[in-house]
Design a protein that fits this description.
Elements (H helix, E strand, L loop, with lengths): L1 E2 L4 H11 L6 H5 L5 E2 L19 E6 L2 E7 L4 H12 L9
Parallel strand pairs: 1-2
Antiparallel strand pairs: 3-4
Length: 95
């Protein structure tokens, strides 16, 4: 998750999803890593290009970008979009 301290939608995600997410089976497939957009990019994420808006969720498998969600569409839409993205993982995301 690329985010920034001034991002209202990032805070909304944390308020609505943040505490629940680590307890889900989705989190076992795609653990959340928070990266401040204003900080230097971690070396292992150097290949992730074009992140401009926050929040931006990037699903990575073996160092390769699989899918991206730009923005936070609200709790009702986040989970189905995440499920669609997780289905793109080479080995899927077992429940």
């Amino acid at each position: 998750m690329f985010e920034s301290a001034s991002c209202t939608w990032c805070q909304r995600w944390h308020d609505e999803i943040g505490e629940i997410y680590p307890k889900t089976s989705d989190a076992r497939c795609a653990p959340l890593r928070r990266v401040d957009l204003g900080d230097p990019r971690p070396i292992d994420l150097a290949e992730i290009k074009g992140v401009i808006y926050t929040p931006t969720f990037v699903l990575i498998d073996d160092g390769r970008e699989i899918a991206r969600l730009i923005g936070y569409p609200g709790e009702d839409f986040f989970w189905p979009i995440l499920a669609d993205h997780l289905a793109k993982l080479p080995n899927g995301c077992p429940k």
